[in-house]
Amino acid sequence: MPEPQRLISLWSSPRNVSTALMYAFAQRPDTVVYDEPLYAHYLSKTDAKNYHPGADEIIADMENDGEKVVRMMLGNHARPIAFFKNMAHHLVELDWSFLNQMTNVLLTRHPKEMLLSFIHQIETPTLQDVGYAKQIELLHYLQDNNLKFVVLENKYLLLHPEKVLKTLCEQIGIPFTKRMLSWEKGARPEDGIWAKHWYHNVHQSSGFDQYTQKTEELPKQLLPLLEECMPFYEQLKALAIRF
Q1: Distance between CA 110 and CA 192 in Å, rounded?
Q2: Each residue of 112-144: pLDDT tens digit?
Q3: What 8-state DSSP symbol labels residue 211?
Q4: Are strands 6-12 and 103-108 parallel, antiparallel or unpaired?
Q5: I need a labelling partner for 207 at 20 to 30 A (CA). Which of 15, 116, 155, 181 fits?
Q6: CA dihedral 197, 31, 88, 144 (to 10 degrees)
């Protein structure tokens, strides 16, 4: 009998290493990757369509019906493992029971570092835009339903990519391969059409970049949002794989 498919869903906050992690999984010969399949659904259901770069193009290009996207995710795929790079805040107006059939991974980043990057695309983000509250809502759902999950933190992943990826693979029940540590520079065919707005740095990379702490000051108008995000981030950080 064929081996049952493994469905891995990453639930990230924005301006993280989520695309690099998708590229890492794309190096596996047993894995097919999907880039933010719920993005158009999210845009069509929220006012984010009014300020996300390329929103009209994304909505026109992708499936807008989140339930149809979920059925695609739960369906058959070309390889034994399907990896879905998702944003946690894209989980709007959906029945979350499909998460029971996924291997769920949460990826977080210090909110100050995230915001310093995010404001280059979206100048005045809200708590909804950055996904931390939705990640905690997701965390509670997984805990309440006794579903296994793994938490990753940007800094730890960049400081120890091989150790963190090995542990991740062990915890989700797939073999680790060193192929996950490097890739060719440039775009990938799986990239969403929004890559031209968001993926400049990852397209210049050939592996996980060395961690460098951001030293810039956050604009004063974003300090209240930073304060809102910090308790959510600290909850996730406490559960993250670290060395």
Answers
A1: 25
A2: 999 999 998 999 999 999 999 999 999 999 999
A3: P
A4: parallel
A5: 116
A6: 180
